[in-house]
Queue: 4 jobs
Job 1
Amino acid sequence: MFHGMEREQSPGPSRRTILANERTQLAWWRTGLTAIAVALGVGRVVPELANSGSRWPYTLIGVGFAVYGIALIVYGTRRSRAFEAEVGGEGVGEGDAIFFVLTAAGVLLGAASAALILFS
C-alpha cells in the first residue's frame, strides 16, 4: 500500500473513467463539426470553384455530410449518456444539462448548414 495508508474504494466510476468518457464524447462532437464544415465546403465552395454547370451533385453530397455531422453529434451524446447510466453515474446534473444544450446547438447549426446548402 502507500506506506501504511489504505486507499479508499469509491462505489462509482473512477474519475479517469468519467474523464475518458467526456473526451470520447468531445471527439464525436469534433468529428461531427468537421463533417458539417466539409458539408459547407462541398455544397457551397467547391461548385463555385469548379465552374460546373451541374450543382445538384455538390448540393446532395453537401447535405449528406451535414446530416452525417448531425448524426455524429447526436450519437456521441447518446453513447456518452448510456455509458454513464451503465457505470452508475450520478444522473442528470448541471454539467449534463450543458452538454444537452451544446448538443442541441450543434444539431441546429448542422440543420442550418444543410438548409443554407439547399436553399441558397
Note: The chain has one domain: 18-119.
Job 2
Amino acid sequence: MKILPQEIEVWYIIPAIRREFAKCLIKDFDASYEKVGQILGISKAAVSQYMNGKRAAKIVLNGKVHEQIDKSCEKLIKGKSDSVVEIQKILEFIKNKKVPCEVCKKLKEAMLSDCKEIRFDGNGYK
C-alpha cells in the first residue's frame, strides 16, 4: 500500500502544525482554548486534545519549523492572517527548505508495513 503525499500532510503534518499553533497561542499569548479554537477553526475540545497530547502527539516538528510557527502565531493572534494561510505557509516552508520530517520514523514505530514508501525529497513526500 502506498500513501499519497497529501494523505501524510492531512493525517500527520497539518494536525502537528495545529497542535503547535495551539500550544504557542496558549502559552505565549495567553489565549483561551475557546479563542484558539476560533482562530484555528476547530473545537475547544480539539484544542484540549492537542494540549493534553491526545491528538497529533506522534509527530515532532523541527526547530526551524517552530520559528515559523512562532511568527505565524503572532499574525494569528493579532488578526493579521488566518490559520489556513499560515498552515499553507508552514507546509511550503517544510517543502522549500527541505526540513527533515519524523513521519516515516513514527509510522515505523506504529508498525505500519508501508512506511518504506514514505520519503521526504524536498518536493514532497513519496
Note: Residues 111-126 have pLDDT under 50 and may be disordered.
Job 3
Amino acid sequence: MGTPLDEEPGRSFEALDEEECFSLLYSSSIGRVAVSLGEIPAIFPVNYHALNGAIYFFTAEGTKLDAAIRGAMVAFQLDHFDFADQHGWSVLAVGKAIEIHEPLLRELAVHFPLQPWAPGARSHLVQIWPDFVSGRRITFGRDGPGTW
C-alpha cells in the first residue's frame, strides 16, 4: 500500500510503492510514451502489454521507433480518474526503449493480448525496461473540488 503524503478530511494524496505501481501497469492496456525530439517533448498514446517488469508495444517507423533504435530514455505514463467518486491514480515508468529483434521474444509477442489499435502496419516491437517507477493516488471525496 502507498504512503500518505498529505491528508485532510475526505481528501488524500499518497505515494504508491513499486509493487502497487507494477500492479497498476499490469492491469491496464493504454498509456502514453514520452520521447525527446531534441529539446521538445513529444507524447504519444499507445496500447501496450506489461510482462515480467517490462512494457511492450508495437509501432510503425517514426518517432517512437527512432527513440528505440537509438536506445533513448523514455517516460511511460498511465492514469485512471473516476470523476463520479472523485479519485484517481497515476503511474510513471522511466527507462530505456529498445527495439526487440530476438525471434523468440517476437514470437512470444504474437501471443500477447496486444494488437495495435491505430491503422497501418505496426510491426516493430518496442520494449521499455523501467529503471524507475513512481505513482500517486489522490482522493477528493464528496466534498472536494468538482474538477481536477
Note: The chain has one domain: 3-139.
Job 4
Amino acid sequence: MRARAAIGVGLMWSALTLVAVSAQEPKGVATTQEEFEAKLGYQTGTVHLSGGMATITLPEEFRFLDVEGAKRLLVDAWGNPERSAEGVLGMMVPADVSPLEPGGWGIVITYDNDGFVNDDDAARMDFDKLLGEMQAGAREVNEEREKEGQPAVDLVGWAEPPHYDAEAHKLYWAKELAFGDSPTHTLNYNIRILGRRGVLVLNAVSGIDQLEDIRSQTQNVLAAVSFNEGHRYTDYLPGKDKAATYGVAGLIAGATVAKAGFFKAIWIGLLAFKKVLAGAAVAFFAMLKRVFSRKEPAEAA
C-alpha cells in the first residue's frame, strides 16, 4: 500500500507539473516536461554575462540559462508576471534536480548600475537595527500591496545574517518571508558582487525548506561569479566613475525606490509560482473527476 501511495504521489506531481507547463503553451500544443526542459538551453562550463562584463565559471553542481531560457522558466513554467523577467541576465539552476520538480530552485541574475558602492560601513553594521528598519519598510510596502489586492508580505527575520568579504567585495544574506496567512514561509536568499560601476544581483528563488541546500552552495556560487578586468571593484576611478548614494547597509535594506520595486516584483513572482501549483492541482483533480464520472458505478468502484 505504501509503495502504491508513493507511486500515486509521484504521478500526481508529474501531472501537476505538466498541467502547469502546458497551461503556458499555445493551445493545441502538447508539451511534456522533457520537451519543455529541452527548450531551456542548459549551458555548462564558462559563460559570459552582458557583453563580457562578468564571467561565471560554473561548478559541476550548476547549469546556466541565458536570457531567453531564464524568461521561459520564470514566466512560462513558474507563472511569474512578464515584468519579473525584465533585466534578467540569466539563471543558475542546480544540475541534480529539474527546476520543474518540487525540490527545484534557481538563482536569478540581474545587474544594478547605481554605481560604485562604498563598503566602508560594512565593518560597523548593526544587523538587529538594520533588520528592524527593513521590517518597517516591508510594512509600508504592504500598504501598496493591499491596494493592489495582494496579500501582505511580512519580513520574519534573517534566515542568514549578512556576511561581507572585504577582500573579494562579495556579500550574501537571506530573509525569511511570510505571505498573507500561508503556513509555508518563503526564502529570499541574496548574493551581491560589487563592481566598478554597479552590483551583480543574484537572488535565489526557493522555499524556506531549501535553505540548507542553498546555504551549502553559497561559497561555490560566490567563487564562480566575478567581474572581468576593467569592471572590477578595484578598477573604480574616484571622481570619474559614478558612485552609489548608499553603502553596504543600504544595499541590504534596498536603499532606493527602484530596489523596492524590484524586490516587490520578486515577492510577487514567488507567490505566483505557488499559485501555478495550486491552480494545477485544481485542474488535475477536476480532470480526474471528469474521467471517473464517465465510468459505470461498478467499474469506478
Note: Residues 1-30, 256-301 have pLDDT under 50 and may be disordered.
